[in-house]
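Quick one, tokens below. Sequence please?
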């Protein structure tokens, strides 16, 4: 983080300032945890389910914090500048926006129901072929994660690739106002978050709030195959660009797609050129992510050679289609998270592979609200028309197993416990098989002992 003049900062945020701020007071850092370095900085007193940051205000001051940001009354034991807010999240985003605009950095913000993290990782890898890039770590895409990502930027950074997630109404708008993107990307409007947003229409409206902080004249890049996003119209505030596999009116489309377990070859076609590329990630959904990345990269003046090299350098992070070979069996660890769109994509890829024995290990999907039973049954129906063995675990996945059996699938098993599933799987697996493991994060599918 670069130094911030505190007096100038408070002129740009909504806080009550207790005590006079010297004109030459600069913040060296912003901290939210007294276990981190707080000396010379601003300590932010956050409240969580199991902690209250206001309990640590005096500790932060004792360790050298020059100022503290609070949302409750506090009694300080030593002198420090007190900034009080009535809306902590809004103030954090105001701080982020102020700091972001101090720097000459180009910001790309990414949101969507599925594919955010994969697109972010692929984009950062591609842009690194030309620029110094900072990206959201892992999937720290909530208010605190985005705030810390912005404050980690320095004058040396040329491009920031930031992932914006949501768990409440209005969150995307707040985050967008905090990062002030030059380019905004929306990957897809799915059914994740139905539990608190109710309808896909509401999810669409929330995701479109990424334009709230989009720089005037900025670019919005959308999945042109999505039934909601394809109807978005440009405004006087931003330009619009579509990518797609099916939408032939999109600016960038993909053709001649060839998939194997290790990756995908395809051709990117525009009005002026075509480019053959390879990404080390399997599936049409990964191709769509790559098209969105290509659109950003071309707008940032990367050459085709740089883009192609960036694609080749991409390594899926975490448990996202991580391929492991053990004792003649191929395992695809794809359990970082799961929703109906990503599960369908995984099944589609698995069905196209040439392995004689294909096994799909499936755990519950979360945040589906009233559609939980329907969407889990749909997975069973998808499996039933393909030559895939199905192993399920979890309460909701029981609907999947029952529906697969009802649709005529013979090789279906459901288990209440992961250990029981692992034992049954090991008894039936054979050399040359492929096992694809998918489930939501809360299911902790990594606990299944596969090998």
């Amino acid at each position: 983080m670069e130094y911030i003049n505190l007096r100038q900062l408070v002129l740009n945020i909504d806080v009550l300032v207790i005590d006079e701020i010297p004109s030459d007071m600069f913040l060296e850092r912003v901290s939210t945890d007294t276990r981190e370095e707080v000396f010379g900085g601003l300590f932010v007193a956050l409240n969580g389910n199991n902690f209250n940051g206001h309990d640590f205000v005096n500790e932060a001051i004792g360790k050298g914090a020059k100022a503290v940001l609070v949302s409750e009354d506090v009694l300080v034991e030593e002198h420090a500048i007190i900034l009080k807010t009535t809306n902590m999240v809004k103030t954090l985003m105001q701080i982020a926006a102020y700091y972001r605009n101090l720097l000459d950095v180009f910001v790309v913000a990414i949101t969507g129901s599925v594919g955010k993290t994969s697109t972010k990782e692929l984009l950062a890898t591609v842009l690194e072929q030309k620029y110094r890039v900072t990206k959201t770590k892992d999937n720290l895409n909530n208010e605190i994660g985005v705030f810390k990502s912005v404050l980690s930027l320095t004058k040396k950074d040329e491009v920031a690739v930031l992932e914006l997630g949501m768990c409440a109404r209005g969150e995307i708008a707040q985050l967008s106002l905090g990062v002030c993107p030059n380019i905004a990307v929306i990957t897809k409007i799915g059914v994740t978050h139905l539990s608190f947003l109710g309808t896909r229409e509401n999810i669409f409206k929330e995701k479109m709030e990424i334009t709230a902080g989009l720089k005037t004249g900025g670019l919005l890049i959308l999945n042109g195959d999505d039934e909601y996003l394809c109807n978005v119209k440009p405004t006087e505030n931003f330009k619009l660009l579509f990518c797609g596999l099916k939408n032939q009116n999109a600016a960038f489309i993909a053709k001649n797609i060839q998939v194997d377990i290790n990756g995908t070859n395809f051709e990117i076609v525009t009005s002026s050129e075509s480019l053959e590329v390879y990404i080390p990630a399997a599936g049409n959904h990964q191709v769509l992510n790559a098209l969105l990345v290509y659109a950003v990269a071309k707008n940032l003046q990367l050459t085709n050679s740089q883009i192609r090299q960036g694609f080749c350098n991409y390594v899926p992070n975490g448990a996202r289609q991580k391929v492991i070979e053990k004792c003649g069996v191929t395992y695809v660890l794809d359990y970082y998270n799961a929703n109906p769109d990503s599960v369908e994509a995984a099944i589609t890829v698995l069905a196209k592979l040439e392995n004689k024995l294909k096994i799909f290990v499936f755990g519950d999907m979360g945040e589906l609200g009233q559609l939980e039973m329907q969407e889990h049954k749909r997975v069973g129906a998808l499996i039933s028309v393909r030559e895939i063995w199905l192993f399920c675990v979890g309460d909701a996945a029981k609907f999947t197993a029952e529906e697969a059996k009802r649709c005529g699938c013979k090789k279906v098993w459901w288990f209440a416990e992961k250990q029981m599933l692992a034992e049954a799987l090991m008894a039936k697996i054979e050399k040359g098989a492929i096992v694809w493991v998918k489930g939501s994060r809360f299911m902790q599918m990594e606990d299944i002992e596969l090998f």
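The chain has 14 helices and 22 strands. Residues 182 and 215 are 5 Å apart (CA to CA).
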